[in-house]
Amino acid sequence: MAQPYYSVRNSKIHGKGVFAKRPIRKGIRVIEYTGPVISMKEADKIGNTVDENGHGHTMFFTVDEKRVIDGNRGGDAKWINHSCAANCEAIQDGDQVFIESLRAIKTGEEITYDYNLVIEEKITEAVRKEFECFCGSPNCRHSQIDKRILAKQARKDKLKAAKKKAKAEKKQLKAEMKKAKAEAKAKAKAQEKSKAKVESKKNKKAKKDKKGGKKSKKKNKK
Ligand SMILES: [Zn+2]
Question: Residue 184 — pLDDT band, cuts 50, 70, 90?
């Protein structure tokens, strides 16, 4: 029997990893992603293990919309790490999945493939952290989640931020208008008050004059 292509040991990327034990040519099925095929529902029940740092260990491979391969009960392929600059890709052949080399791989190189994870739930900070990428490649997208899903989420986030900004601006405008209205009202009130003051002064003066007039009248009568 031929020597296997790989061995499993600790990885710099994340947890355990799979490494080339000998040179691998391009287009070689290095390893099969094995394990029982189970339903998505069952997989959800099992869930991903998340370590103390919030990083997840994905041990499932999606076969179709309803089924996954449970790598937890499978072979060594479950240890293969994600990379944004992977040297392998996952090839599906019916219900079977093979990790195939995209290029020649040297002995000792870590075997990787792009997980292109499809996340149905909302991509929260916790989800982002769970599927964070540490591949260290120059083009690392810092996530194991499929680019298209990330792009979609980014568009949604942008729209949400714009809506939030517009709402805040509207609120501010409303507050400014309210303030201006209140100020105008206060000014009007103050003006009315001072007008009333002037008027009452005038009235007092008029009364005084009237009184004085009466007096003088009286005087005149004498
Ligand atoms: Zn990466």
Answer: very high
